[in-house]
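TICKET #2291
ISSUE: user wants both folds in one file
ATTACHMENT 1:
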Amino acid sequence: MVNDHDLSSFKQACTLADAEEARLSEPDEVARLAKLSKLEYDRQREEAAAHLGVRVVTLDKAVREKRSAEHDAATLPHWQVEPSPLPVDGAKLLDALRQVFRHYIVLPPGADIALALWVLHAWTMDAGEISPFMVLVSPTKRCGKTSVMILLQYLTPRSELASNITGPALFRYIEAVRPTLLIDEADSFVRDNEELRGILNSGHTKVAANVIRSVEVNGEHKPRRFSTWAAKAIATIRCLADTLEDRAIIVQLQRKPPGAKVERLRRRDNEWCAALRSQAARWSTDNFDKLVDPDPQMPEALNDRAADNWRPLLAIADLSGGEWPQLARQACLTLSGESPEETLGVMLLADCRPAFGDAAVIRSADLVQELTADPERPWAEYNRGDPITQRQLAKLLGTFGIISVNVRPEVGPQGKGYRRVDFEEAWERYCPAKTPCAPDSSPDCRPTVPRPVESAQVDGFASVPEAPWDGSKNGNLSNNHEVWDAGTDKTPESAARNDSATTPTPLGDPGGDPGPIPECLRRYPCDHCGGAVGITHNYTWPGRPDGVWLHAQCEALWFDSEGRP
C-alpha cells in the first residue's frame, strides 16, 4: 500500500524532473520557436510558455533576441567592427584612407581626397543634415569604377554592394538595415527609372529622407513611413540624371594610361581595410558630437547645392586638422567648382539671347530656326537626331516660367512666339550678360576672374586678373602692364609713368600684388585637341613629368589612341 506521504513525495519528484527536463530543453525550444513564422509562433507561444514555466512576455523577448542574434550572424563579415582601443588622429586616418585609394587606382586630381573624406562621412552621417552621393562616372568600361566601389565596401560601415535594385527594395532595405549602399552598373537601370531616382533623391536631406507606402496590418491597409536616409555611392558609365548629379560629388574616372602602375586589387577584405574600419569606428565615436550642425568656411566659387554637398566633408577636414582643411577646399574646387558646362535649360536660355538680336518679340518658328542654325549646339539634333520642335521648346522654357503668346514681329506675319521682356528675369538669374568694354575704355573696367577662394579659406589665395586678351600667358600678372593696356593706345612706358599711388586700382584688385595664380585656378590647353577653352583635368602619363591635360570630352579619345593627338 502506498501511503499519502509516499504519493506526495513521488509527485514532487516528478515535478522536479519535469522542471529539470524543461530547463535542459529551453535553448532548443527557443531556437525552434525562433525559426517559426510569425503566425505559427503566435499559435504555439502560450502552450510553449506553459511548458517552459515562464510568462508569455518573457518567452516573446527570448525569441526576439534569438532571431536578432541569428540575423547578426548572417550579416557580412566586414560588418562586425571592433572600435580601436586607442584614440585615433583624424589627419593620420585620412592620410591612410587616401593612400589606400592611390595604392590601387589611378584617380583624377582631388578624387583621393574626396573619397577619403566621404568614407568618414559614411561613419558620421547621422551627425549632419545632408548626405551627398559619391558618384563615379566614366566614359567607358574598365576605368576602375567597380574597384573603387569594392574599396568603399571594405572601408565604410555596414556596406552593401549591389549591381541592381528596385525602388521598393531600396527603401525597405534601408529601413531594415541602414547600410552604406553602393550601387554599381547604375547606367543599366537608374537613368530611365523615375521612381527609383525619386527615392534616391529623397535620401540627400535627412528631414526629407522618407517615403510613404501602404502596408497590410492585421488585414487592414495602413500608411507607413520608410526611411531612405543612408550614405550612397553610385557608379555609372556616362552621366546620371541632372537631379542625382546635383546632389552628388562627382569623380570622373578614366582608363589607366599605359605605363601607369598601381597594385592589383584582390577583391576581398584584408587586414589593412579591417584596421582602417576599426580606426574609423573609434574616430567617429569620439568626434560625432563635434560634427553636429557643422558650419565650415565654404569657398565662394561653389553654388548653393555644391556647398551643401561639401559642408559635411569640409567639417570633417577642419576637425581633423593638419593639411586637410586646405586639401579639402582645393579638392572641392577641382571637382565641384563652377564650370562652363551648363544644364540644357540654361544653355537654351543663353542661346535664345542672340536669337532675339535687338527684336522685342520673336515667333516660335523663327526662334527654332535660329537655334538649329548652329550645328555645334544640341538643338539641331535634339529630337532624336531631328531639330527641336516648337512644342519641345515651349516645354523647356516653361520650366523657367516663360510661355508663348501671340506676337506681331516687325517683319513677317503674327503668330505664337515669345517676348524679350519675359526672358529678362531668367537671363539675369541664370546667364547674366557680361558688360563689354568700349575699345577706348580705361583699364578699370577690364574683367577679372571671380575669386573662388578667399584668403581665410586657403592661404595665399587672392583675386586674379583674367588672362590678357592677346592670349599670352604669364604666371604672375600683377606687374604686367600689357595685361591692363592691351587693346588701348597706351605703351608700357606711359603706363609705367601713370602707375602711381594716385592711380585707381583695377576693379576686383583689393590692392597690392595678388601673387601667382593659385594652381587650382590655372587653365591648361588640352593636349588632345589643343583647345584652351573649358576645364581640363591632369593625368599621369609615361614620359611626361607634368602629365597631360585633357578636356572631359577628349579623355576617352586620348586614352584610346594611346596619346596620339
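ATTACHMENT 2:
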Amino acid sequence: MKKFLALLLAAVMVFSLAACGGKGSTDGGSDDQKESSGGGGDAQNVSDLESEADEMVSDLPALSESELAGATLKKEVIIGQNKDLVTLDPYASNNIEVSILLRMTHSHLVKQDPRTYEIQPDLATDWEVTDEYIDFTIRDDAKFHNGDPVTVEDIIYSFDVMKENSFTSSKVSFIDHIEKIDDTHIRMYLATNNQDALRILAYFNVCIVSQKESEADPDNGRAIGSGPYKVTEWELGSHVTVERFDDYFGEKPLTEKFTMKNMPEDSARVIAVENGETDICIAPPVQEVEHIAESDKSMVMSITANKLIYLAINQNGNNPALLDKKVRQAIAHAINRENIVIAAKDGKAVLANTVLSPKTPGYNPDQKALEYDPELAKQLLAESEYPDGFDFTISFIDGTTYKTIAQLMEADLREIGIHVIVDPKDNSSIKTLMAEGKHDAVIYNWGPTPGEGTDITVRSLFYGGSGSNRQLLDNEEVNKMIDDAAVETDEAKRNQIYYDLQAWMIDNAGFLPLYYEILYMGVNKNLHNFNIEPSEQHNFTYCYVTE
C-alpha cells in the first residue's frame, strides 16, 4: 500500500508541475475559481466540462413506430451496479440503488417528467394548492403488485410511516396531517407552506406502500408498490430482479424484465458491458471510458453531473478532536483537492466551491471553499486543543476512486501531524456504520435532480435528525435557516438564506466539498429511449434494447 501511494503521489506531482507551466495553467476559468480550488492549476470549470460532455451522448431517443414494429426486443435488460442494494424498504435509505429501483416499482402522488422535470399526475390525477392545504383527487384504477387496490387509507398510512423514519421524516415535515374526504379525495394540511412541496412529493422515496403488506411483513412488505414493475427476486450481495406488472395503471413498458447485478469491482463491471454480458454499466472509472467506447458492443453516455463528492466529519461522535472547529478547519486547509481531481478523476471533474451543486437553486457561484494552505493548517492545529495531532478514521465504499481520495488525504494530513486510518468498506457495512453514528469521517456523495428544488438537499444533508446528515450535525441556527428558506416566497430572499447557509457550512468545516463529477455510463449500442440523469437517480422504466 505504501509503495502504491508513493507512486500515486509521484504521478500527482508530475501532473501538477506540468499544469503550472505553459498553456495548461490558463485552463479552468477565473482567478477566483482557481483561488478557491486550493491547487496549482489543472482544474476545470463548469463550462469546460459542459462543452466536453456535450460532445458525448446523454439522451438516446425512442424508435419510431415503424422501426419498433420491425424490431426484436431483448426480454431482459441487465444492469451492472457499482454498489449493492441493501434494502427494499423505500423509507430506509436515500441511496442511488434504492432510487433506481423505486422509480420502477412504486408510485407517488405526483411524479416528474424524466427529461423536463415538469410535475405530472401519478396516483393523484388532479390537485389544488392553497397556503393551508393541498387537495388531491386520487385515481380509482391503481393496484398494488399483490392485486389489492390502492386506497386513500394506504396513502395516509404511507405518510404516517414516513414521519417515523429518519430518511423521510425531514422531507415530509411540511405536512401536518392528511384527512380523507371520500374514497377518491384527500386533503393534506400543511404545517408549513413549503415552496417545494409538489417536488418533494415526487421524490423517489416519498412513495406509497400497501398498509396491509407493510404491517404483515415490516421487513419486506414495503417492497410491494403499484409501479410498472414488481420485485420478483432479491439476493443481498448479488442481484435484484423486477418483472413487468401487467395491471399497472399507466403506460406499459416494453422490456419484460430488468436484473440489477451487484458488481463492485470496476474492471469486472466494465468488461461485462464491453462483452455484452450486461447492457448497462453504472459509474465506470473515467480511465476506462475510452475502452468502453472502442468496443463494438458498447458505447459511452455522459452528462455534466449534479453530483457532489464530499468528506463529512462526525460532530456528534466518539472522537473529541473532531468536535474542535479549528481542527476541522485544519483538516480542510491540509487537503489538496486539486491533486484529488487529477489523480482520482483524471482531471475530469470540477473543484467544488461550496456545499450545493451548480444546478441546485440557491447555489452561490461566488462562495469559496477553504483553500489548500498546509502552513495555515499547521497553525490552526497548533492553536487547537490537539497541537500534537491525533488519529481518526476515514471510511468509504471500497472502489478505485474513493480509495485514491482517501490515500491522498492520508498523505496530506500526515504532513501536518494528523494520522489517518484508511477504512474501505462494502456498501452494507458503511450504511450500518453511519446509521449507528460510529464513523469519524466518510467520503460520500449527494446527487440531487435539477428538478427537485433545494429543500430536499439542505434538509437531508444538514438538518438535525436526518438520516442523510453524515455530520450528525444538529444546530439550531442551521435548522432555522432551512425552515425559513422553505417558506420564503420571495426568491431573492430565499436565495440569500441559502447563501448564508453555505457560508456557515464552509466556515464550520464539517462538510468539506471536494468536486462535482462528469457522469459516465457504459451502455449497449442498441439501447433506446433513455436519458442519463445528472443526479444518478436514473429511470430505466421505459428503455429497451434491440437484438
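RESOLUTION: both attachments delivered.
EXTRA DETAIL ON ATTACHMENT 2: The first helix runs from residue 2 to 20.
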